[in-house]
Every structure is written in structure tokens, then in C-alpha cells.
Amino acid sequence: MRIKTIGHQLLFNTVPLETYDANDRHLGTATSFVLSHRLKSGKDELFLVSNKHVVSQAWRAVCWFTTIKRGKPDIGNPFFVNWSDGFAAAWIGHPAPTVDVAVAPLSWALELIGRGGSKAFYMKLTTTMIPSTDEIADFDVMEPIAFVGYPNAMWDKKHYAPIFRRGTLATPFQLDYSGAPGFLIDASVFPGSSGSPVFLFRERYTRQGVKAVDFKLLGVLAGVYCQPDVGELQVAPIPSSATSQVRVRHMLDLGVVFRSTTILETIAEFEKVIAPPVASRGSASGRQQRRRVRAARLPTNP
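Above: the chain sequence. Below: its structure as C-alpha cells.
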């Protein structure tokens, strides 16, 4: 496969999170994605981005990355990472309790894994892909969107590729839906989609007849509207396990997305709380965090 388009690149951006509690009980499958941001120190840091409700109860998590072979992705040959010993403690949540966004620093983990001989192929998003104020002012109400992840714990079991879905904005991006820093999308949202990146994906043709895509990182998928068996319409976090949905009769195909600016606010919180100890490689806290990640070769169908 030639990695030529935005879609090709997005095949290597999301990272599945198979989470487990302290008793090693499987909690479910969710989505995270790789994002780069330049810190105030001038250093470019890689982060995993997901939701608070995905990581808050997890003691450990298993995820995977595509292996590099001769500088290219070795599709179908991932290496697995067991992120253990207090997985939740590695994450920083948005300072507002109701904003369901969390980030975890990733650069040190990939560096440590690389020393063990496993090299990850990934395509990072950057915070420069977050739309500017001027760009946002021009957004229409029903812009086309796309999101990528692992709905219902589904992925291509041979090639370890995520699932792509499309939809439209369901509320104006410029307005805080019901007072929260986010918006709704009209799309099929299922368990496992928690933490999926949501993009503006507006395809068009230039005057020269060349196909182009207006592509921006709009936010992080976190919740879904559903109709219970009895009662009023509810909005709830997207569960990472489909089995927790037995009491729900209908999902209304309305996803709740926190705007991408909340990611920047969460990274700012990371800089205040975590950045100094992480930067000090010889510190006790730095050594403790590096012990949390271990790379291992596992069977191709875990």
C-alpha cells in the first residue's frame, strides 16, 4: 500500500486500548489517537488522547502499533504493548470534571520500547490541525465529518486496521451544545468508539479539477444519546464494552464530541502537573513511569 492520502495516514494514527481492572478483569475496548504538540519548553511531545471514562478505572491496558520494516509499515505484523502498574495514573484529565478528555505522554514510552528493538510506525496528528477562529467562523451547520476507531471492538483482524465512519455535524460547531464545550454529530456511534478523533472531512475539487480535502481535527468522541426501555432521553458515555448496553433499547445515532480546544486545555494541565518530572529522566517518578510500559510479541489474534 502506498501511503498517499489522508485516509491512508489515518490507518496508522489510532491506537486501541484493551483495558483491565486491578483483578485483571477485562473492562472493554476503546480508542485513542496519537497527537503531537509543542510544549512551552519548545519540545515536541507525543500524546495519546482518549476519554476520562475509558482510562479512569483501568489498572492496565494492552494496545498495539504497526511494526516498521525497511522504513515502511509492516501491515498485519503489529507489536503489542502491555501498559501496566497503574495505567490510569499515567493520564491527565481535563481540569473541568464534566469534560471527558484525557491525555497521556507517549514519547518516552516509544523511546523505551525502541531500545528493546520494537519500532512503531505511526502517523501523528498535530495540534496545528485544530481549526483557527477564522476557519471556525466559516463552518456550515451540517459539515461532513469522519471518525476512526474500534466500534464494538471491531477491527480488521488480519491487518489490524481500524474502522472508518462518516456523518455530519448535527449542531453548529461554533456553539457550545447545552453549555458544554462541544457539539453533536449525526453518525452511528457504538461501544468502542470512545476516544475516537472526529475530523472535518470536506471533499471538493479545485478550479483545475484536482480533488482536495479540507481536513481539520474537530474533537474527541465521548458520548452517545440513547433511549432507555422506560424513561426520558439520556446522554451517556460510550461504554467500552457492548455487554453494558443490555438495558438500552435504541441508540439515536447522535454522538457527543468535545471540541478539540479541550485537548489543548488538557495538555496545558499536563504541563502544569507532569511535565517537569517526565523531563527529568533520572528522577524517581520518571523511572516509575518507564516501568509501566513493556513491549511483548504476542500471537496475532489476542
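Residues 277-302 have pLDDT under 50 and may be disordered.
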